Structure to design on (147 residues):
């Protein structure tokens, strides 16, 4: 990945790994950090950030001495559940999106995990933030626009 990404290179790597996991990559082990560094032409810190993103979503876990493995019972990624909240709460473009504290309570996850998911949603243009005002819905997920 020679070019800088406005979304964050680690998020792009996390998305690529998430897609591989969803496709059902053979085995339960992920490629080594060194292999991911070579494949994406990034530093170890960038790879680790991507892996920590997936770990926060309970998709993978670190096994000391064995690397990163798929979680035994992966659940729907937090970002997907937070996008689904737009449908569940019938939010429209321009509507206020729930606060970080409310999202933490609703999904039972840490503020760090919520912030990562919010960053992904903001990176895709689905949400926007105004300091002191909170987040608002800027675009509906594609599955909502079609219905």
């Amino acid at each position: 990945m020679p070019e800088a990404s406005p979304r964050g290179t680690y998020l792009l790597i996390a998305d690529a790994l998430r897609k591989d996991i969803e496709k059902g990559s053979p085995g339960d082990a992920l490629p080594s950090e060194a292999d991911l560094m070579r494949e994406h032409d990034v530093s170890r810190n960038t790879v680790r950030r991507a892996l920590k993103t997936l770990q926060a979503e309970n998709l993978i876990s670190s096994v000391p001495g064995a690397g990163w493995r798929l979680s035994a019972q992966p659940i729907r990624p937090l970002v997907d559940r937070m996008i689904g909240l737009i449908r569940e709460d019938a939010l429209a473009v321009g509507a206020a999106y729930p606060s970080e504290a409310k999202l933490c309570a609703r999904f039972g996850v840490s503020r760090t995990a919520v912030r990562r998911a919010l960053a992904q949603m903001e990176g895709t243009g689905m949400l926007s933030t105004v300091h002191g005002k909170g987040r608002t819905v800027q675009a509906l997920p594609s599955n909502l626009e079609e219905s």
Q: What stands out?
A: The longest strand covers residues 60-63. Strands lie at 60-63, 67-70, 127-130, 134-137.
